[in-house]
Every structure is written in C-alpha cells, then in structure tokens.
Amino acid sequence: MSLTSDPAAWVRSVVEAFCEGAENALYPAGANGERAWAEPLVGFSGGADPLYEQYREYVGPFHWTPLDVFGLAFPEVDVRPEELTVICWILPQTADTKRDNRAQTVYPAERWARSRIFGEQVNNKLRAHVADALNEAGHEAVAPMLCPDWESRTSERFVYASTWSERHAAYASGLGTFGLCDGLITSLGKAMRVGSVVARIQIPPTPRPYADHRAYCLFFSKGICGKCIDRCPVGALSENGHDKVKCRAHLNPTTSEYVKANYGFDGYGCGLCQTAVPCESKIPTARDVEGHG
Ligand code: SF4
Ligand code: SF4
Q1: SS3 at position 9
Q2: Nearest-angstrom CA–CA distance, 64 and 69
Q3: Which protein residue's CA is at the shortest distance from atom 4 of ligand 2?
Q4: Cis peptide, bond prior to residue 253, ω within 30 of zero
Q5: Can you say whether residue 211 is alpha, beta or left, with left for phi > 0 and alpha for psi between -120 and 50 degrees?
Q6: Contact assessment for residue 65 and residue 56, using Cβ atoms and an 8 Å cutoff
Q7: Among 247, 255, 279, which residue has the most ligand 2 atoms within 8 Å of its CB, making it the best to mutate?
Q8: In which band, very low, low, confident or very high, does the pLDDT at 30 lie, cut at 50, 70 and 90?
Q9: Using CB atoms within 10 A of its CB, is residue 125 exposed (0-12), middle (13-18) or buried (19+)?
C-alpha cells in the first residue's frame, strides 16, 4: 500500500516491519535472536481531539497537546491541530516473558527486566524509525518521548507525571482503557509498553469502543476482580488505586539491586501486577476472574 492511498495501512506496515526485524531483540545483537516484543497493535487519534485539551486539565497544565509538541519540534511550520495525527502502538510482552513473570512473587523475571531496559531501547529505535520514515516521506513527525524538552513532572492527581503520557495518547487512539493499577488494558492485555509519534498527516482516528476511561477493568465495570492488588509484593495497590511512591521505591532500589546481582546488568522492573491477572493478555471478562483465584 502507498502512503497517499492508505496512510493508516502504510504506518501500520512501518511499525510491523520494524517489529519483524533484527532490531526487535531482547538480548544483545546476535546473542540468540529472541524478540523483545510480540506483534504490535497500532491506533490513531486526531490532533484536534478534545481529549488532549482535557489531559491538560486532568494530568496537569504542563501536559502537551499534539500541537504543542509538534510546535517544539517544528517551530517554523505553521500548522493547525486538525492537520496532525497521533500515531500510537502497543508492544505486547512475548509469551515467554509473560510466562516467566507469572511465576514471580517479589522480583521481576530476567526476561521482564530485559524488556524494561533493552525492550524500551527497541521502542526508542521504533519511535525514531517511524518519525524518520514519515519525515522522509514529506510528513513532518516527532516522537514526543525523544523530544529534548520531554520531562517528568509532579502532578497533584498523578504524583508522578510527564509532559507527554503515551498511555493517555493510546487511550485517545482507541487502544485501551485504564486498570486499577494504572496500566492500560488493551485488546492484547496490559502486559505491554506503548510508543507514539505526532505527525502532520491526515489519518482517520481509530474508533474508541468505550465510553469510560476504566471500561475494561473489572473492578470498575463490575465491582469484582482486584487480582492485581494481591500480586503487588509491597502493598502499592489497593481498592483506592496505585500508590506510585511505594511502587517506585520497590522498583528502585529493591529491584535494581536484584537485577544487577542476579541478571548482571543495570536495570529494574516489576510488572507483577501485569502478569498472572485476568487482564494480562486480553480484555477480561467476569469468567476470567475464576481462573485467577
Ligand atoms: S487485575 Fe482486575 S482489578 Fe486489576 S486492573 Fe486487571 S481487571 Fe482491573
Ligand atoms: S509494578 Fe510492582 S510494585 Fe508497582 S504496583 Fe505493580 S506489582 Fe506493585
């Protein structure tokens, strides 16, 4: 397909081809060829989608709209929000990584810790690759997470936040809704990571098959489940949600010391609340809760 006749399919093929290539590696180049990520999902939202203005109020006034980040990258280009598209992808954890992390009760499995560090490096390459492909095709594009101005911020509501939340962009792009643990539950589950690019290109938005930002979480939709609460080794999850301070303290130094001592690289990770739960690999139903007793 061509970029002009079907830009959505063209972008999707760029993401998919990258994930099928040698760059998508969980181990150093040539070590064993194991992939960092399974087959991706891709979604789109419009640069003028009112959700992005709402994020500024909801996350914090520092949160960028697509127009903000595009303007930082291309200050010389005069553009309207309607001309922009946010491209998002979901990189699901592989079956092997999920299987290994399901067996853990305190620390991350080695594959999980590798995906957090080396898999995220793959995601960074993918961000750059998608932006480069669009720029080369004549459509200015920027990966917000690679923008030098991207930074972490503190938020009254979210405690830790940033100038661009890829999970919120993915929600806007029809890819999933939030769970009790703050993770995004997608059609391939919550054990995944997100990437995004903002580009001057017209692509029809992906329909959002949900009316509520927590629609896929059984705790909010049906008042059941809460399995992620039991998975957290440090009590960072409760019916009141996600205690990010406790969670972060577990990630660093607890898991970072463990990863260094046991797996031999500088890293960290956890993801216990993303594995061995009904929403690990799918949008859960009430029946799935029975299998996670
Ligand atoms: S494990 Fe259950 S309560 Fe926790 S996010 Fe998933 S569906 Fe929601
Ligand atoms: S990532 Fe780990 S520490 Fe953080 S909430 Fe999930 S299970 Fe708890």
Answers
A1: helix
A2: 6
A3: 247
A4: yes
A5: alpha
A6: yes
A7: 247
A8: low
A9: middle
> In angstroms, how far is the first alpha carbon of the chain from the final one?
47
Tens digit of pLDDT for each residue in 99-148?
Answer: 999 999 999 999 999 999 999 999 999 999 999 999 999 999 999 999 99
Mean pLDDT, residues 264-269: 96
Top mutation candidate among 193, 231, 248, 272 for ligand 2, by most atoms within 8 Å of CB: 272
The structure's pTM equals: 0.96
Gap from CA of 41 to ligand 2 centroid (Å): 24
Among candidate residues 123, 130, 121, the one with its CA nearest the CA of residue 87: 130
Judge whether 110 and 94 are in contact, CB under 8 Å.
no
Indicate if the alpha-carbon torsion angle 51, 52, 53, 59 is positive or negative. positive
Residues with CB under 6 A from ligand 2: 181, 231-232, 234, 236-237, 242, 247, 250, 270-273
The structure tokens listed for 52 are 């992005």
Question: What residue type is assigned to position 175 of the chain?
Answer: L
With a Cβ cut-off of 6 Å, ligand 1 is lined by: 179-181, 217-219, 225-228, 277-279, 284
